[in-house]
Design goal:
Layout (H helix, E strand, L loop, with lengths): L2 H4 L23 H21 L10 H21 L10 H18 L13 E2 L4 E2 L1 H19 L7 H19 L4 H18 L3 H24 L7 H9 L9 H15 L11 H4 L11 H34 L3 H26 L16 H27 L7
Antiparallel strand pairs: 1-2
Helix pairs in contact: 2-3, 2-12, 3-14, 4-5, 4-6, 5-6, 5-7, 5-13, 5-14, 6-7, 7-13, 10-12, 12-13, 12-14, 13-14
Length: 404
């Protein structure tokens, strides 16, 4: 799929306003729903192994909370699927403002969380911790999509590309300051995907990739060489250690080495209960969050890992299908943003577990433990379902036969 083949999307499609009221009676995308339920079940089964001994007085603590997050998120997904997503376009500025204010609130009031040095990534509430960087992904998708639609006739102008990048760069840099490098990179991946799908010229896209490469070289090589450290020392170590893990003795090298040992020891069908020594023995740090895929690999082996990846493939395929069947440009761009969020997180998280990507703290959607991540992902799926339902209603109104 090329940018040129998608560029006609840039001329916004206008769906008939009448007749879509009946879309509330249409069913949800069954395959997308199946993928979500399947990943939720896999998450509970995996966390049962990875968190068994984390709290000896309550071995099911993490499982119970994750189940609550999944149920709450699923209910929110169903509710959002019946909401007219097009209304969000008119709320671009309030949504973007909420994004910035929530991140600033976490910087000012947030607490340190496990696994991060001097990190202020979450605000504690009585029953849960709120990570603005997670919800911010969805807010950014909606706000940027609305902005791009408003300038759909000027997408090939450099000014439009620059504005989209600035709108994404501001929250990205604020999140990196927390420090949460992984979410900051997700924000930029979302912006790039929206520009690509909207039909931005290849010259600008290539220039953007070149800019990212040069910026990365400056941050990782040039700046430290002259004594300027943009990233925290442990972040720099995590970004570079994967190139030569065996030659490093840092924390990042240890994590990736133990993760690969865990995945390899699972072999075809995984180790039985009580024999998952890497995960249950806590040799793999953060086995319930960042390295949950290592827990899948050790406990359930190649078969389990293949099943999880197949469910993600189904989730991503249905997201791409919904992108193409949207009734308007705004829906296509929202679906594209969700697609970028899911693809980036799955690729980076699984990649860092098997040692082919640097450790950036990106969670595995619907698998990693955490309420903010789980509920945000299910809210994003709820928007996808809304786009699907209204897309089907629009096509039915035009007399088309809709196939899954």
């Amino acid at each position: 799929m090329s940018a040129s083949s998608l560029s006609p999307i840039a001329a916004e499609r206008q769906a008939p306003a009448r007749g879509l009221a009946g879309s509330a009676r249409l069913p949800l995308d069954p395959l997308l729903t199946l993928a979500v339920i399947g990943l939720g079940v896999c998450s509970i089964l995996t966390l049962r192994v990875a968190t068994r001994d984390l709290i000896p007085s309550d071995p099911h603590y993490y499982i119970k909370r994750q189940a609550i997050y999944l149920v709450v998120g699923f209910v929110a997904m169903v509710a959002l699927s019946r909401f007219d997503y097009a209304r969000l376009r008119r709320l671009m500025y309030p949504i973007y403002g909420a994004l910035i204010l929530s991140i600033l609130a976490v910087l000012a009031l947030g607490r340190e969380i496990k696994g991060s040095v001097h990190s202020t990534r979450a605000i504690n509430f009585p029953l849960f911790s709120f990570q603005a960087s997670e919800l911010g992904k969805l807010l950014l998708i909606v706000a940027l999509s609305a902005f791009v639609v408003g300038r759909s006739r000027r997408l090939r102008e450099l000014d439009t590309t620059a504005r989209v990048l600035i709108l994404a760069l501001v929250p990205s840099m604020l999140v990196i300051l927390q420090p949460d490098l992984g979410s900051g990179l997700v924000y930029m991946a979302i912006a790039f995907m929206l520009l690509f799908v909207a039909g931005t010229s290849w010259k600008q896209l290539v220039g953007l990739v070149a800019l990212v490469i040069v910026s990365g070289a400056i941050v990782l090589v040039a700046a430290p060489a002259v004594g300027v450290h943009v990233l925290k020392p442990y972040q720099e170590e995590r970004l570079t250690v994967f190139l030569n893990p065996s030659g490093s003795t840092g924390e990042g090298a240890y994590q990736q080495l133990q993760s690969k040992v865990a995945i390899g020891s699972g072999q075809k069908t995984g180790r039985g209960g009580g024999e998952s020594t890497q995960i249950e023995g806590k040799y793999v740090p953060e086995g319930e969050t960042d390295f949950v895929f290592a827990a899948v690999g050790e406990r359930y082996g190649f078969v389990g890992a293949a099943l999880v990846l197949s469910l993600y493939a189904l989730l991503i395929w249905r997201t791409l299908r919904i992108l193409t069947m949207s009734k308007d440009l705004f829906g296509s761009l929202v679906a594209a943003g969700v697609l970028a969020m899911l693809m980036f997180q799955v690729f980076v998280n699984v990649g860092m577990a098997v040692g082919i990507m640097p450790i950036t703290g990106v969670t595995l959607p619907l698998m990693s433990y955490g309420g903010s991540s789980v509920i945000t992902t299910l809210l994003a799926v709820g928007l996808l379902q809304s786009i699907y339902v209204q897309g089907r209603a629009s096509q039915a109104l035009k007399g088309r036969v809709v196939r899954h």
